[in-house]
Design brief:
CATH superfamily of the largest domain: Cobalamin-binding domain
Number of domains: 3
Helix content: 40-55%
Catalytic activity: Exonucleolytic cleavage in either 5'- to 3'- or 3'- to 5'-direction to yield nucleoside 5'-phosphates
Distance between the termini: 91 Å
Family: Belongs to the XseA family.
EC number: 3.1.11.6
CATH class of the largest domain: Alpha Beta
Oligomer: single chain
Pfam family, one: tRNA_anti_2
Organism: Dysgonomonas macrotermitis
C-alpha cells in the first residue's frame, strides 16, 4: 500500500501551526509549581502539575518557562505580596500562553501571576494547622506557662550572623538600670527550607538543659519577608506549643502572625522589641520587691504604734484599782505585753526573712556571684568577648575572676 509520509519535523511543525492558530490567546490557569530552577541568564524553568482530590496522584503536567525580563518583576511582586519565596510546591494562578517547539515540544510561557490566589491557599493551610493543634489540645499550652520573675536566663535561637541577634544582645547589655542577663546562643538557620529542622534541633538541645533557663527567645532580623513561610510549619508549631519553657518570638515582620507567633507564649515584632519585653519584666520584678520592702517597714511601724497605744490605754484604765487588784492586773498586763512583743517580733522576723530571701535572689544574679561560681569574664580592651571569632592572634585579652584578673596573649 502506497503511503504518503511526512517527516517528524513536518508533523511537529503542523502541530505547532494548529496550536498557534487555535490557541493564540492568553489563559489563566490554576496549578502547582514543581521542580523550579533558574539558570545563569535569569530565566526560570519549572513544571506545572495538578493532583487528584487525594492530593497524591498527578493527573496533569506541563513544562513551563518564565523569561528573565518577566521573571525578575513577577518574582519580586509575588514575594512582596505573599511573604513567601517563589519555589516548588506552591498553588498558583498564572496567565500563560501555549507554545510548541519542534524539538522541545509543548510548554507554557508565563506572563503574569495573581498572588492573592496563593495567599488564600496560605491562609487555608495556616487555618488547617491551627485547627489540628487545637484538636490535639496543644494550641495554647505554651501561652499557659508562667513566665519567671525575673526572667534573666535566656536561651536564644538565632543565626549568629543576624543583625537582629546583635541588636537583641546590645539592647540587653546596654540597659541603663544595670540588670544582668545570662544568655546562651543555640545557632540555627533562620531562612530557607532548612529552617524548620534547624530550629527544632536547637529546641532539642535546650530541652536537655531546661533547668538552666527561664525562657526561650526565637529571633531573626534582616532577612527577607519571603522566608517567613518556614514559620508556618506544623512540626515547628507543635514542638514550640509543647515546649516546657515560655517561648518569645521576634522574627521581624509586620504582617499577620505566623503559626509560630500564634502558639508562642509571647510575640514581639522585632528582636529589639523582645529585649524591651524582657527588660520590662525584670524592672517590674525589681519594683515589686521594693514595694514589698516598703510595705513591710510601714506595716511593722504601724503595728508597733497600735500596740503601744493599747498598752498606754490599759495602764491608764486600771490606775484607780486597789493595790492588790492593780498588782494582779499589772501581771496580766505584763503577760499581754510579752505576748504582744512576741507576736510583733515574730511578724518582724517573718517579714525580715521574706525580704532577705528576695534580696538574696537579686544578689545571686549579680556579676560578682556569677564569677564566684567559677565563671570568668573575658575582655579585649573594654569589650566583652563572647566568641573566639571576636579576637585575633596576638591580641591581649583579660580574664576576670572573682578575686582578680590575668592578662593573656592570643596565640
Amino acid at each position: 500500500m502506497d503511503q504518503t509520509a511526512i517527516s517528524l519535523y513536518e508533523l511537529n511543525n503542523l502541530v505547532r501551526g494548529v496550536l498557534t492558530t487555535s490557541f493564540d490567546q492568553l489563559f489563566w490557569i490554576q496549578a502547582e509549581t514543581s521542580d523550579v530552577r533558574c539558570n545563569q541568564n535569569g530565566h526560570c524553568y519549572l513544571e506545572f502539575i495538578e493532583k487528584d482530590a487525594s492530593n497524591r496522584n498527578i493527573i496533569a503536567k506541563a513544562r513551563g518557562s518564565i523569561w528573565s525580563n518577566v521573571f525578575r518583576l513577577l518574582k519580586a511582586y509575588f514575594e512582596s505580596e505573599t511573604g513567601q519565596t517563589f519555589a516548588s510546591g506552591l498553588k498558583v494562578l498564572i496567565q500563560v500562553s501555549i507554545e510548541f517547539h519542534e524539538v522541545y515540544g509543548y510548554s507554557l510561557n508565563v506572563h503574569n501571576i495573581d498572588p492573592t490566589y496563593t495567599l488564600g491557599d496560605q491562609v487555608k493551610n495556616r487555618a488547617l494547622i491551627l485547627k489540628q493543634l487545637e484538636e490535639e489540645g496543644v494550641l495554647t499550652l505554651n501561652k499557659e506557662l508562667q513566665l519567671a520573675k525575673p526572667a534573666n536566663r535566656i536561651a536564644i535561637i538565632s543565626s549568629p550572623t543576624a543583625a537582629g541577634y546583635e541588636d537583641f544582645c546590645n539592647q540587653l547589655e546596654g540597659n541603663k538600670e544595670g540588670f544582668i542577663f545570662y544568655t546562651k546562643l543555640f545557632p540555627a538557620i533562620m531562612q530557607g527550607e532548612r529552617t524548620e529542622g534547624a530550629i527544632i534541633a536547637a529546641l532539642d538541645r535546650i530541652y536537655e538543659n531546661t533547668g538552666k533557663f527561664d525562657a526561650v527567645v526565637i529571633i531573626r532580623g534582616g532577612g527577607a519577608t519571603s522566608d517567613l513561610s518556614s514559620f508556618d510549619s506544623y512540626l515547628l508549631a507543635a514542638n514550640c506549643a509543647q515546649f516546657p519553657l515560655p517561648i518569645i518570638t521576634g522574627i521581624g515582620h509586620e504582617r499577620d502572625d505566623t503559626v509560630l507567633d500564634i502558639v508562642a507564649h509571647t510575640r514581639a515584632k522585632t528582636p529589639t522589641a523582645v529585649a524591651e519585653f524582657l527588660l520590662r519584666n525584670i524592672s517590674e520584678t525589681a519594683d515589686e520587691l521594693n514595694n514589698i520592702q516598703d510595705s513591710i517597714i510601714f506595716e511593722t511601724n504601724k503595728r508597733l504604734t497600735e500596740e503601744t497605744a493599747v498598752l498606754t490605754t490599759l495602764s491608764a484604765k486600771y490606775s484607780y484599782i486597789t493595790k492588790d487588784k492593780t498588782k494582779d492586773q499589772l501581771n496580766k498586763l505584763h503577760l499581754i505585753t510579752e505576748r504582744l512583743k512576741n507576736a510583733v517580733n515574730k511578724l518582724i522576723q517573718e517579714q525580715k526573712h521574706n525580704l532577705i530571701s528576695k534580696e538574696q535572689h537579686i544578689e545571686l544574679i549579680s556579676p560578682e556571684n556569677i564569677l564566684k561560681k567559677g565563671y570568668t569574664l573575658t575582655l579585649a580592651g573594654n569589650k566583652i568577648i563572647k566568641s573566639v571569632s571576636q579576637i585575633k592572634k596576638g591580641e591581649i585579652i583579660t580574664n576576670r575572676f572573682s578575686d582578680g584578673e590575668i592578662e593573656s596573649v592570643v596565640k
